Amino acid sequence: MTVRLILHPLTPAMARRRLIWGACLGCVAAVARHALAADPGLRILAAASLKDALDALAQQWAQRGHVRPLIIYGGTPMLARQLEQGAPADLIVSADAIWMNRLDQGGFIRRESRSVLAGNRLALIAPARARTVLALRPGMPIGAALGGGRLAIADVRTVPAGRYARAALESLGVWDQVSDRLAMTDNVRAALALVAREESPLGVVYATDARAQPLVRVVGLFDEALHPPIVYPIALTARATHPDAARFLAWLRTSEARAVLADQGLTLPTLTSAGDAALTRHAA
Predict the structure, then answer these.
(1) How many other CB atoms are there within 10 angstroms of residue 12's CB atom?
(2) In Å, how far are 227, 238, 259, 277 from 274, measured between CA atoms?
(3) For 6, how many CA atoms within 13 A lie in the half-sphere containing its CB?
(4) Main-chain phi, psi angles of 37, to 5 degrees
(5) Residues 242, 43: contact at Cβ < 8 Å?
(6) CA-CA 20 to 30 A from 81: which of 24, 96, 224, 240?
């Protein structure tokens, strides 16, 4: 039996379809190559209380022609443990010197890159609709002000904001009024949310957190002498690989970046020829 192969002539319409399919396949391949080569941007682990400030800085960085950083926010203890367990990151910003010291001692950061990004204040807050009035002074009746509720606060054992809050309340001699009436959270933003939702009548958070949440109001700011200095150490991680990591860290010390931090309500360390290493050591 003879088998004949019949070839149909290529019509203009068929030729156009083949050209279109070829072009589409070429575009798909080009997009795939671009995706594989795309710059993922800086990877940053940062304390939750810095979200508004770092989001604003990331936007500024992107406007300068860089890829916007990927920032993972959370409680400092969780972020530090993630880095210790191998989480990929180029920079880390903690909410106190204690956790950064631990990372330094473990070899998880580049010691020479460490500095203080900014500082903060501690605030006592209440729901916006509450009429609570309380002067932050020794012996203040904070227990009575809580009524039947609990004080929203970050975990006083591990979270920097919680440790600062406990130190301030102890300095005022009122810790015993609240020590068994705490609603402890994994990070300061979660404590803020409890007050915003009126699940807690009072809370202790950073001043910048209170500023960012219209559903709460500041009852008062704690005197900075009542607790250790609130600082945010920042450093390159030991495994930092992004070529922009060091440049971004240096940019954070410029007047442009510092203006963003100040606009977000953060306090700024004094820059010296030796950087702000002295302030970092003082906070430790």
Answers:
(1) 7
(2) 26, 22, 21, 7
(3) 1
(4) -95, -5
(5) yes
(6) 224
Give strand pairing partners of 43.
70
pTM: 0.77
Residue 9 gets which letter from DSSP? P
Residue type, 133: V
Neighbours of 259 (CB within 10 A): 12
Using one digit for the tens of pLDDT, what is the confidence trace for 77-112?
999 999 999 999 999 999 999 999 999 999 999 999
Tens-place pLDDT, residues 39-72: 578 999 999 999 999 999 999 999 999 999 999 9
- Alpha-carbon distance of 43 to 68, in angstroms, equals 10
Is 31 exposed, middle or buried (CB count within 10 Å of its CB: 0-12, 13-18, 19+)? exposed
Using alpha carbons, select from 226, 206, 236, 262 the residue that is nearest to residue 100.
236
Q: Which residues contact 202 (CB under 8 A, 6 or more apart)?
A: 124, 125, 126, 132, 142, 145, 146, 149, 151, 152, 195, 219
Helices vs strands, H then E, count in the chain: 12, 10
Integer Cα distance of 226 and 1 in angstroms: 101
Could you give the CA distance from residue 162 to residue 156 in angstroms, rounded to a whole number?
Answer: 4
Alpha helices per DSSP H over 114-254 = 142-146, 160-171, 175-178, 188-196, 207-212, 245-251
